[in-house]
Sequence to fold (372 residues):
Amino acid sequence: MNFKSLLAVATALITVNAKKIFIDNDGLASLEALFAISAGYEIVGVSSSFGSSSLVDSAGAASDVLKTYNLTSCIPNYLGAQQPLLRTNETFHAWENLFGDLVWQGAFDASYADSHSWDNVTYDDSKAGALALIEAVKSNKDSDPVTIFAAGMMTTVAQAISIYPNLVKEAAGLYIMGGYFDNQYAQATGNSITIDINTDINLIQDPEAAQIVLTSDWKELVIGGNFTNYLVPSQELYDKIIDKAGSIDLIRSHPYFSQVSNLLATGNYTENNDQQKLPFWDAAILFALVNPDTIKETTDVTVAVDTSFYSPYYGSLKLYSHEWAPKSGYKVANATIVDKIDDEQFYNTVLDVFFKNWTQYCEVHGPVALEI
Fold:
C-alpha cells in the first residue's frame, strides 16, 4: 500500500472516530473553527445566518475563515435562516420605541451596510442550513451524535426542529452563546460599550425561535452567557502574539495571518475601536464545549424565553430554580449555565492555534509545521 493509500485510510479512521459538531452563527470567527479542529472535533457543517450581520456578511465571514485556513473542501458553509420566525425590521424598532433602544441592533440597524459581496463568498447552495443540520444529525446519530453549537439567533435550529422534531433526540446536545442575566445595573449605568456587552441580541432578535429551541427536550442544553464577558482581548495577549510571530509587520503582510491581523488591528489595544474590544463571546463557549475539562463552575437551572411582545424583557432568558419554575402554561426546560472556565488555558490555546498551520487539515486532519 503506497503512502497516499495509507493516508486515505488513516484520514477515514480519524473522521469516523472524531467527535462531530455543527456550527450555526451570524458570523463565524476564526477561533471557533480552530478551537474545534484543534480539539479533535470534525466540523460537519457551518450554517451562516442573518442576525448581528446581514446574510451576505455572515456567509462572508465564514467564507473568509474557511478560505484563510484552506478548509473549504471539508467544511461546507451553508446559508441558514435569512430572517427571524416572526420579527421584522419594523416590529423590532416598534418594540424599541416602547421599551428603549438597543445599543447594538445588528443587521436591523438603519445604518447597517454590507461589507461583503456575494461575488466573493464561497458557500454550498445545494441545501438550506436547516436541512444540512438535519442530514448531519441523522447520518451520525448511531455512530457519533452531533453536538449543535448555535451562536446567533436560534432560527436555523428552530427551523430544523420544525421540519424534523427527532433532531432533538438524535443530536448529542445543544450549546448556545446567549442568555445574559442579572445585568440591569450595568445596562442602566454603563457607557455604550458596557451596555452593549450586557445586552443579549441573539435571543432578542428572534425570541420565538429561542423559546422553541431552548425548551426542546435536548439530551444536554448548555448556555454560555455572563462568563464570556470576562474573556477579552488585552495588550498582554497582543504582545504575546506579536512576539511569537516576530513582528506585527509580518502578521500584517502574511496572508495566513489575515484573521490574526483583524484581531490585532494596530497592535495597540487601547487604540482599537469598540468592536475590536469586544469579548471572545462565541469562541469562549465553543472552547468550553470542545474542552469540557476546562469548565470550572456551572449552575443547573430551569429556563425559558420571554415571548410577550408587550414586555420590556421580550427575548430575554428567564431563569428559575427547579423547585419554583412554572409547572404549567409556560414551557420550560432544564439547562446548565457555564459560570467559569480556565481562563489561562483559554488564552494559551488562542496563542497555540493561531501558530499552527491548518492549511492541510482537510487531507491530514491535523496541523502541519508552520513556516513563516
